[in-house]
Fold:
Amino acid sequence: MLKQIYKIDINGYAVTLNNELPFNQRSISSLYLEDDEEIPEGYVQAPDTSTQQLWLPKWNGENWVEGLSQAEIDALNNVSQQPTDADYLLDLDFRISMIELGI
Structure:
């Protein structure tokens, strides 16, 4: 079985990719490892997204917490969620990666 790990910066924030996109369309830098593989330095096991949804995951040394203020979250929740061409390309890239990994 695979586990997902997030790359974190020196402040504990999950490193985001596609920073030219609006905040709610960015993806997080992550890797998948076998359960018995050691997590490399600078990475932390990703939060359980079935129980915890975070806009900007932040590792506080013990747990994942929300890295945005409630006002920032409220502003993002009011933004139109219309998919863009970049969304479709990211989704396609993700699906191809999953097929290549046999997931």
